[in-house]
Amino acid sequence: MNTNLIQTVIIEDEPKALELLSGLIEATGMAEVVATTTDPFQATDLLTRYEPDMVFLDIRMPGMSGFDILNEMKNLNTAMPHVVFTTAHDEYAIKAFDYAAFDYLLKPIDPDRLRETLTRFCVNNRKDTAERPQALIENNKVLIFRGVTGVTFIDTDDVICITADGNYSIFHFITGRVETVTSLIGTVEMLLGRHFFRTGRSCIINTAFLVRIDMKQLQCVLIKGEKEFRCDISREKVRQLMEHIKGRIAESQNL
User: Strand, coil or helix: what is 61?
Assistant: First the structure.
């Protein structure tokens, strides 16, 4: 195993497609295939054992989809590799965004497109396994979600707060724009940087716009220009928010 190369695992139920993709990956000289399987039920064991940098994951497989495999991995609470979905069916693209996919490649896979994926990983995301989750959060300033009417692109620098509405999350922007996405607020929270803070079950605030905490109303007050936003916060969360802000100040002073 050459640790200077991107370590990859392929999960693909069609042997010919698996062999072809493996050859394309190795031919780039940028990555090596450390393990493969045509049995989706072996996927989680394989990923846990090898802890690759990247998994090339077919979506449609008999008995278990690529999305099912990722759900199992989340339940195991193990390190998650960068996920590149591979499929001949482009209707899954939007759902793939919900799983924070690193990339989405349509079959037959174009060698140049594959090289672009590996190059982007090397430039922006090559971190030690322990650093990977936080690095991804800090780098992903622009997030992609499935919205009510299609795909929604979110620039987190422009977000003042996010509120929950059942199975939906509503982004409130400094311009007054509002976007509703079909993701739970807990899922959204995991994708945000450290300047965001969850004040309760139904609200996440961008602390960059926090101007005061109204202890009488138990609300966070956020202001941008002439626009004011308020989010409820419990007394216990006030203490946590103060510690969070102190930590951020300490970090900035140590830079």
Answer: coil
What are the structural domains of the chain?
6-136 (3.40.50.2300), 141-254 (2.40.50.1020)
CB 99 within 8 A of CB 93: no
Q: Tens of pLDDT along 114-152? A: 998 898 888 765 444 333 434 333 444 677 777 666 777
Distance CA 31, CA 49 (A): 18
Could you tell me where the DSSP H helices lie in the chain? 15-27, 43-50, 66-76, 93-98, 111-124, 132-139, 185-191, 235-254
DSSP 84-114: EEEES-GGGHHHHHHTT-SEEEESSPPHHHH
pTM beyond 0.90: the answer is no
Q: What is the pLDDT of residues 23-34, one digit of tens each?
A: 999 999 999 999
- Nearest 5°: the CA angle 100, 105, 108 is 160
d(CA 31, CA 24): 10
More confident residue, 192 or 211: 211
Q: Treating both helix axes as pointing N-terminal to C-terminal, what angle do 43-50 and 66-76 enclose, rounded to 10 degrees? A: 50
Q: What is the DSSP string of 142-177?
A: EEEEEBSSSEEEEEGGGEEEEEEETTEEEEEETTS-
Tokens representing residue 10 in the block: 């392929």
Q: Match 């109303």 to its residue by tokens.
A: 217
